TrEMBL record:
Species assigned in the record: Apiotrichum porosum
Protein family (similarity comment): Belongs to the FAD-dependent oxidoreductase family.
Protein name in the entry: FAD/NAD(P)-binding domain-containing protein
Gene Ontology MF terms in the entry: electron-transferring-flavoprotein dehydrogenase activity; flavin adenine dinucleotide binding
SUPFAM superfamilies: FAD/NAD(P)-binding domain (SSF51905)
GO cellular component: a single term: cytoplasm
Length: 409
């Protein structure tokens, strides 16, 4: 297969996989996709907020093993390398952790960086963890939450709020407290945009206020403009009730601490190749064709490197909604380039500003940007749709190989 020109894709979650599904059918003979994924499985991350709380949800609606058979049709020339990792980016080639076709160095025509973000479990599986290990982690956490009486959630972004809502829905008598550094839940403060990434949008103040009101009615305490002062290792089950100091001087009593902050771009391999291609807050700098902007023409990244999804500095929220718009857009750009046509620059569609936040099986709030009407509050049926299966059908639909994936709840 040495004569094949490789389109290497690093990371097989929303961004990488939607790119692959768009580019693979458009590639002329002589080109093939090589999809590299370090974990043996892919997680539908929106479901995690329930799977770490509600017993049984670790087994449904959440994960799928990534195989040649469930990604590509039978007999396809395209390849899934999984589990395998890209450990180094070079000029026109990448280095793999495991050899493929006799070598750990893999030459490419184009390389797509879709390495996403990283955060501690449960919110993202540890690099290299097996599916069984991840499910065991989730089951242990469900048991620890069941045993806890008072849970402190550090971070009131979407994930912290949704997880608090899930705990409250299942265990209404447990005390749940959310401590958040901004003036409202989610991200209403423009000043909170990460340094060097000024285009990161804010969430609507109405959505924040609505969520806070609903949580208040349910007895969930919310501290805003504040920070928990945690000791090293003070997360998960504490073994006993402890007083956790806040920066404001208040204290929160808790026997379980869930840290829902620290979601950072997974850009280490890019930074190692060219530190100037990564912004101060860790995002890979790209242009409107998703091309990585190298520090200099001598950079190994000065060739055919692209980045998208959670790892890339693009002007919309780093969400599954955005990643699943960027994958097809980049697929069409690369297909056009290969065919010698002018590619169309990417601008985020208004839907990438959608934000739907559920609170267990009932309630929640959100915003939907609509053409002509502008941004409107998310109607109840949309919240209900998300809460029912966290849009898992979209996850299943990504797997277009002969072996079907079904994570339906
Ligand atoms: C708990 C949680 C809930 C969320 N809920 C929502 C929601 O309700 N709605 C929404 O729109 N968004 C939600 N998001 C955000 C959404 O999941 C992300 O924006 C989306 O997953 C980004 O996709 P991605 O493909 O860019 O990156 P990721 O999903 O992070 O995937 C990156 C992939 O790359 C792989 N990888 C990394 N490095 C390498 C390497 N060197 N070699 C090979 N493979 C590698 C990883 O294993 C991973 O599979 C949520 C996120 C979390 C954490």
């Amino acid at each position: 297969m040495a004569s094949q020109k490789n389109i290497v894709v690093i990371g097989a979650s929303v961004a990488g996989h939607t790119f692959v599904n768009t580019i693979a059918p458009q590639l002329p003979a002589g080109y093939r996709v090589i999809l590299v994924e370090r974990n043996e499985f892919i997680v539908h991350l929106p479901t995690v907020v329930r799977s770490c709380i509600v017993p049984g949800w670790e087994s449904k609606n959440l994960t799928s093993r990534l195989t040649q058979e469930n990604v590509f049709p039978t007999g396809s020339r395209h390849r899934v390398l999984c589990p395998n990792s890209v450990v180094e980016l070079r000029t026109n080639s990448v280095v793999l952790s495991e050899a493929f076709e006799g070598s750990t160095e893999l030459a490419f025509e184009k390389c797509i960086i879709a390495t996403g973000a990283q955060q501690g479990a449960p919110f993202r599986p540890a690099a290299g963890s097996s599916l069984d290990e991840y499910k065991t982690f989730l089951r242990n956490m469900q048991n620890d939450i069941k045993a806890a009486e008072s849970i402190l959630i550090v971070g009131g972004g979407t994930v912290g709020v949704e997880t608090g809502g899930e705990i409250n829905a299942l265990y209404p008598k447990k005390q749940v407290t959310i401590v958040h550094s901004e003036s409202g839940l989610l991200h209403p403060d423009a000043t909170a945009a990460p340094a060097g990434f000024t285009t990161f949008p804010t969430t609507g103040a109405k959505v924040s206020a609505n969520l806070q009101k609903q949580l208040g009615v349910r007895g969930v305490k919310v501290y805003l403009n504040d920070r928990a002062i945690l000791q090293p290792g003070q997360s998960g089950p504490l073994g006993s009730r402890q007083s956790i100091p806040l920066k404001s001087g208040e204290t929160v009593e808790a026997d379980y601490v869930l840290v829902s902050v620290g979601n950072v771009p997974n850009s280490a391999i890019v930074k190692a190749a060219d530190p100037a291609a990564v912004s101060a807050n860790g995002y890979v700098i790209v242009d409107s064709l998703f091309r990585v902007v190298p520090g200099s023409s001598a950079s190994p990244l000065a060739g055919e490197y692209y980045a998208l999804g959670d790892v890339a500095a693009l002007p919309s929220w780093r969400t599954s909604v955005s990643a699943s718009a960027e994958g097809p857009a980049l697929g069409n750009i690369v297909a056009a380039e290969i065919k010698g046509k002018s590619p169309k620059a990417y601008t985020p569609a208004s839907m990438t500003g959608a934000c739907i936040v559920t609170l267990g099986d009932k309630g929640g709030a959100g915003q939907l940007p609509m053409p002509i009407f502008g941004t409107v509050s998310a109607p109840g049926f949309i919240l209900g749709m998300k809460s029912k299966d966290f849009f898992a059908r979209q996850f299943d639909a990504r797997f277009t190989g002969a072996t079907k994936v079904s994570t339906a709840a």
